[in-house]
Design brief:
The structure holds 3 protein chains of 3 kinds. By secondary structure, chain A is of the alpha/beta class. Chain A has 11 helices and 16 strands. Chain A has 2 domains: 180 residues, 3-Layer(aba) Sandwich (Rossmann fold), CATH 3.40.50.620; 117 residues, TPP-binding domain (Rossmann fold). Chain A has a 7-stranded parallel beta sheet, sandwiched between helices. Chain A has a 5-stranded parallel beta sheet with strand order 13-12-14-15-16. Chain C is of the alpha+beta class. The chains are: A alpha/beta, B alpha/beta, C alpha+beta. Chains in contact: A-B, A-C, B-C. Chains A and B meet through α5, β5, β7, β8 and β11 of A and α3, α4, β9, β10 and β11 of B.
Chain lengths: 342, 275, 383
């Protein structure tokens, strides 16, 4: 701890944690805000400022949001030539800034863009980078402890960049919780000019458009709503389709349900059916027989709804809601319809 | 004729390796190796370019002696030449060091190559970093997560889906592209191809010395990160219990998990602010 | 003998396994129940040299060594024994006699098509009154000008419903009018070549096993394989080789059954713990694994002798006898470990159990194998 402080006093340099402003899916993906929130926690330990860096055209909205969610400083470059995301342009800009200002840590959202952008930046800054972190911690001396998944997420690795600075990590969206906004907050905002010497990007964006949602199969669906006999009857079971539509997911079924004719065999999840790996699994009225749970090995986050709190499925869930499955399903659909502004 | 290099990696065949409690390491020895699935798609992409306009394909890997297997497989699929980088002093390289070593091998063995393809990420470490960092080493324009490639003269057109944006990019050779899992379903190697890859093809093995890599420049250009330990993700789930009337249980649940759910479904489910 | 697989064998195994798991696993149960011969998968397999495993390169084959070929059959059978049967019969007893006994023009005419899988082969010796006793064949081939006219009925012909070329054992007359058996290359498009209904069998149900009828079927004399009267010689040599294939098939079925049983035993909970923690189940698994390993070494030993050009008939019979009895036992234990579910078509072990049984019967019953082995042992000089 002492060494860190002494060094800072000697160099008299304000420590700084940078968060790269990745905003193009802002309404779906709040990773930048989540990172600012985490950076605020880390900054407290090492007495650093949190600095958001944003490039683009008409970025005032993002400057305001980053400030409201916890940034102490915002470095912004606003120019029409930065309208569409460009890895090469953004790299050239941030490389220059980072070399001038020497941040201690740079955090970047593990979006597709971030995961292409960050490794190249790390190379230019001759420093280390850990990918897709699910946890960050900081030691008083300033060493950033990066927890990154390995082997399909079954293992976690604790990674540090000991000698080189900045310390860099990309972080999975949804890992940290954003700080609620406070539009009264203020930050130092530096609106920087586009450098005159910016090299032309060698990659030309010929076309880009927001994509339609892709078609799912149950094996690669990120959201699955599964139903069992606890839903009571075929009509109740069919309502899972409505929930699946709202969540952009697929419907799965247990063996008894398939044999009762409530669902097609294609929907069977389990030992003799499909093995699924959704990010979120809703399990309605399912007790959790091994023939079913054997197919859930890789479900990331399980929400179980069952009248019986002792059911196996309720014990293996991340969230167990003790309620009548059909009743809860109806309420969930109703509430989601209100909340999702389509 | 186009000169293509495909960088591939051998990964363990299973995602869940047994864990040795005593030594705190993964029992890698229990798993057979295979070509990383995205790397196999990169080989397929190269083969399709070769079939369309002719190309010479060099496959390259770095790894322990057993990793030679993935080069043989790529040769069996139709690649023309294999280069194997194998040296114990290179073991444990992070992506920073790996991209430096691969760049050195490419510059030595395939100078003037037009196109470098990599898998977008590997199934064991999933960093997706080697490709982009290799592009930096070689100072090439690059695109990650490509779903489709079109070559016309010296221009490479890349289609990809990133962050829910469908993009078409263009760049001039030489260029580097990483191939996603979405398209380029890889062909199976025929048994004739496999037999030939083993019986009729020599694969040169390059060690660090052959690449001009010394302890000194490994210090300067080598690994930046250090894995302090690897541990099993705790299996004990938090198991949050929610009770009460259905309507209130739903609100409680959604309020508590809205960010996690939004991040997955790509829609905001934040409650309407009370006026 | 090498006890560790070389890199080539490992890669060939991975390659066949990944093909089987991707292309055959999703359909294996369905084609068994519906008795469907999966032509589209077979076509893909043709392009990958599954039907020319040991055919030389100049005829478009893969020119694999015998262990490699056995590994391929093993891996296909591990997932879908009926398709494994198609592959092993085609390679082991339809293509193999061409390689050993056909003349240059026969090879040129048939091998490329066979090796590509465009032409599916069959081998038919068995008749209503002739099985183990190959000397009792009743089908006749009577010379008429430049043709032989075939008459007779072959039964239980593997690939019978789909084969394009069949090797047919028939009685011919020697110049001195003695009856002897000869082998003919008969194309399904020859007039008088008729197929019977598909057999309704216990296992291997996706393989179109049928009878073949020959009614005044003219076969050009250039389609005589080997010389007139070579039937017994060709038959014995071919069956030796076929036994390696059946052994590989049985081994693959047993391997698949054991893997399914191990997976189930680790997942299935009774008395609040996985049944794999019960010593009885552990004993079953230990026996299964040990016998599978022993069977595999015995099989590869026969393959190695074959590639070395040594006599391998006795070793092939040992491998076939041991692998097939082992497969019946292992699949039965796999059903037992699955309990009631193992007796249900919902689980693969039920199919493995049915498929394994016939490996003790065809290509020479276990009783015949013992006879071959005993003869070989008893004929060796006393030290």
């Amino acid at each position: 701890m002492k060494t860190g402080k002494n060094k800072r006093m000697m160099t008299n340099k304000q420590k700084s944690i940078w968060v790269f402003g990745d905003y193009r899916n802002y309404y779906q993906n709040r990773v930048t805000l989540q990172l600012i929130s985490k950076a605020v926690d880390l900054a407290r330990v090492i007495d650093a400022e949190v600095c958001a860096v944003v490039f683009g055209h008409n970025v005032e909205e993002w400057i305001m949001e980053y400030t409201a969610h916890g940034a102490d400083r915002v470095l912004a470059i606003d120019h029409p030539s930065l309208t569409s995301y460009s890895t090469e342009n953004y790299l050239a800009l941030i490389e220059k800034l980072a070399k001038q200002r020497d941040p201690d840590i740079i955090l970047i959202g593990a979006t597709d863009f971030g995961r292409e952008f960050a490794p190249r930046l790390a190379k230019r800054l001759k420093t280390g980078l850990s990918a897709d972190c699910v946890g960050l911690d900081i030691e008083p001396e300033g060493l950033l402890v990066q927890i990154a998944p390995s082997f399909g997420g079954n293992m976690l690795a604790e990674i540090v960049t000991e000698k080189h600075r900045p310390q860099m990590a990309t972080v999975r969206p949804g890992t940290f919780k954003e700080i609620p906004h406070n539009y009264e907050r203020t930050a130092i905002v530096e609106r920087l000019p586009l450098p005159a010497t910016l090299p032309a990007s060698r990659v030309r964006v010929v076309e880009y458009e927001r994509a339609a949602q892709k078609g799912h199969t149950i094996e690669n669906a990120t959201v699955i709503v599964c139903g069992g006999r606890g839903l009571g009857n075929k009509n109740n079971f069919k309502k899972l389709n409505e929930l699946a539509r709202l969540l952009g997911g697929d419907v799965g079924a247990t063996r008894p349900v398939v044999y009762a004719g409530w669902a097609d065999h294609d929907a069977l999840v389990g030992q003799a059916g499909k093995h699924i790996k959704p990010k979120i699994l809703f399990s309605f009225g399912i007790s959790g027989a091994i023939q079913h749970t054997a197919g859930l090995g890789e479900a990331n986050f399980i929400v179980a709804i069952n009248k019986n709190p002792q059911a196996t499925m309720m014990k293996m869930a991340d969230v167990a809601i003790a309620a009548d499955a059909s009743d809860l399903l109806n309420n969930l659909i109703k509430e989601l319809k209100k909340r999702i502004r389509e | 004729m186009l000169n293509i290099v495909v960088c591939i990696k051998q990964v363990p065949m299973v995602t869940e390796l047994p864990w040795d409690e005593k030594t705190g390491t993964l029992r890698r020895d229990l798993a057979a190796g295979m070509m990383n699935p995205a790397c196999k798609r990169a080989v397929e992409a190269a083969l399709q370019i070769k079939e369309k306009q002719g190309a010479s394909i060099t496959v390259m890997t770095m790894g322990p002696p057993a990793a030679e297997e993935v080069l043989r497989e790529a040769l069996a699929m139709g690649a023309d030449r294999g280069i194997f980088i194998c040296d114990p002093i290179l073991a444990g390289s992070d992506t920073y060091a790996t991209s430096f070593i691969l760049a050195a091998a490419i510059q030595k063995e395939v100078p003037g190559c037009d196109l470098i393809l990599c898998g977008a990420y590997t199934s064991d470490s999933e960093t997706a970093q080697v490709g982009p960092q290799l592009a930096e080493e070689l100072n090439m324009p690059a695109a990650a997560y490509a779903e489709h490639l079109d070559v016309s003269g010296r221009i490479l057109r890349v289609r990809r889906l990133v962050d829910n944006f469908r993009e078409t990019l263009e760049m001039e050779f030489p260029a580097l592209v990483t191939i996603s899992m979405e398209r380029y379903e890889p062909r199976y190697a025929s048994f004739a191809g496999l037999n030939k890859a083993f019986m009729e093809t020599d694969i040169p093995v390059l060690n660090a010395e052959a690449l001009g890599i010394t302890a000194e420049n490994l210090e300067a250009r080598g690994s930046r990160t250090k894995v302090r330990r690897v541990f099993i993700r705790k299996t004990q789930k938090e198991n949050v219990r929610i009770t009460g009337a259905a309507a209130s249980a739903v609100s409680e649940f959604l309020d508590r998990y809205q960010w996690a759910i939004s991040a997955v479904i790509g829609k905001s489910i934040e409650a309407e602010k009370q006026a | 003998m090498q006890f560790n697989p070389c890199m080539k064998h490992k890669l060939i195994r991975n390659s066949a396994r990944s093909f089987a798991e991707t292309e055959l696993a999703p359909i294996a149960a369905e084609i068994d129940q519906q008795r469907i011969f999966p032509r589209d998968v077979i076509a893909k397999m043709g392009e990958l040299n599954y039907f020319g495993l040991q055919v030389p390169k100049e005829y478009g084959g893969a020119a694999l060594d015998s262990i490699s070929a056995a590994i391929v059959v093993e891996e296909i059978s591990r997932v879908c024994a009926a398709v494994g049967l198609c592959v092993t019969v085609h390679n082991g007893v339809a293509v193999y006699p061409f390689l050993q006994f056909a003349n240059a023009s026969q090879k040129e005419k048939y091998l490329p098509q066979l090796a590509a899988g465009n032409v599916i082969g069959a081998f038919s010796l068995t008749e209503a009154n002739a099985g183990s006793d190959a000397g009792s064949v009743e089908t006749t081939a009577v010379k008429n000008g430049t043709d032989y006219i075939l008459n007779g009925t072959k039964i239980f012909v593997t690939n019978g419903g789909v084969c394009d070329v069949a090797l047919i054992f028939a009685l011919t007359s020697s110049p001195d009018n003695k009856l002897q058996s000869s082998v003919f290359i008969v194309e399904s498009k020859f007039p008088g070549f008729l197929r019977g209904e598909l057999e309704d069998l216990c296992g291997m149900r996706a393989n179109p096993v049928s009878s073949l009828f020959f009614e005044d079927c003219p076969v050009p004399e250039e389609n005589l394989l080997g010389r007139l009267g070579d039937g017994m010689k060709i038959g014995l040599a071919t069956l030796d080789n076929g036994r390696i294939g059946v052994a590989a098939q049985a081994l693959g079925i047993a391997q698949g059954a054991m893997e399914a049983a191990v997976k189930y035993a680790k997942e299935r909970q009774q008395f609040k713990k996985p049944i794999a923690s019960q010593q009885t189940i552990q004993n079953y698994i230990a026996d299964m694994a040990t016998e599978i390993m022993a069977a595999r070494l015995l099989l590869y030993r026969a393959c190695e002798r074959k590639d070395a050009g040594a006599a391998f008939g006795c070793e092939a019979s040992m491998a076939k006898l041991y692998c097939s009895t082992m497969a019946s036992k292992v699949t039965s234990l796999a059903v037992q470990i699955h309990g009631g579910y193992g007796y249900s078509k919902e689980y693969d072990v039920e199919r493995y159990f049915r498929d394994a049984r016939v490996t003790e019967i065809y290509e020479g019953t276990s009783e015949i194998q013992r006879m071959v082995i005993a003869r070989s042992i008893l004929s060796q000089p006393i030290m």
